[in-house]
Amino acid sequence: MNYVQSNTKTGAFQVASASDLTGKEGYLVKMTDASGTPKVDVPAAQTDFAQYVVANVLSSTLVEVIPLTAGTQVRLSVSGTAIVSGSKLVGYGGTAAGLAFPWASGAAFISAVAEESAGTALGFVKARPVLSYYT
Question: Is the pTM of this model over 0.70?
Fold first, then answer.
C-alpha cells in the first residue's frame, strides 16, 4: 500500500491574526493573505469561507486555530440567536462576525451543522463541520 498521507500533522496550529481576536475563542475565522503572510480573521461577508475555529488566543497578534475537519466535533460561540439541533451554521452575521448563526438566505458557505440546540444567551454549541457551498 502506498499511503501518501503518512508522516503528516493534524490538529490545532498557531497563526498570526489580522485583527485582535482576544476573547474570541470558539469564533469561526477565515484564512487571509496579508502580502504573502497567512493570517486569520473573522468573516467580513456572507460569502467568506470560515473554515477554522479559534482555540486559544496567545496574544493580540497570534492565535491557535483548529481546522474544521469532517468527523470531528467542535464547540462554536453562538450569536445569541436560538439554534435548533440540525441547523446549518455560518460564521457571518454583520456586527457579530465569527459567531455561529443559523443559515439564512444569502449565505454562500455552510461551516457546520449544530449537534445540539442552543438558546439565545451567548454561549457555545456543539457542531459537526460540513464545509459546504450553498447556492
Answer: yes
